[in-house]
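Dear support,

Our group has been running a series of protein-ligand predictions, and this particular one with tetrahydrodeoxyuridine is the one our PI (initials K.S.) wants archived with full inputs and outputs. We had some confusion internally about which version of the output was final, so please treat the block below as the authoritative record. The input we submitted was:
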Amino acid sequence: MENRELIRLALEARERAYVPYSKYQVGAALLAKNGTVYQGCNIENAAYTPTNCAERTAFFKAVSEGVREFEAIAIVGGYAGEPVDYAYPCGVCRQVMMEFCEPESFRVITAISEDVYLERTLEEMLPHGFGPSKLHTED
Ligand code: THU
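Confirmed final output from the archive:
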């Protein structure tokens, strides 16, 4: 899938952001290796801490559907209207990416529009990250 299309889906997801408190609308579109795209938006809460970021919404939708292999994620964010700056994933979301993605090849696309975006690997976004390979698990 083209980056443009993934960004378009992130912009579409952002329209569904539930943000009565911060008003900061984030959308994400997560491309699985099987070609399926999972959209996510941020979902806030009156108690604040239960808030879920757009990126994690997308990941948790996918993983809860049995999908665990991913290629790329597009992220857009900002206050009402068109995004004017890049919205970078928070540390918690980077750590969730680390759980399911290959740091050297998973692409993190931060976008302002379908034409204006930056692309980095997860390794660049979270250098020296702690992931599943560090633990002695049986499988
Ligand atoms: N937010 C995201 O959705 N993704 C991030 O990676 C950073 C922050 C949301 C959480 C909250 O609803 C709003 O942006 C302001 O922090």
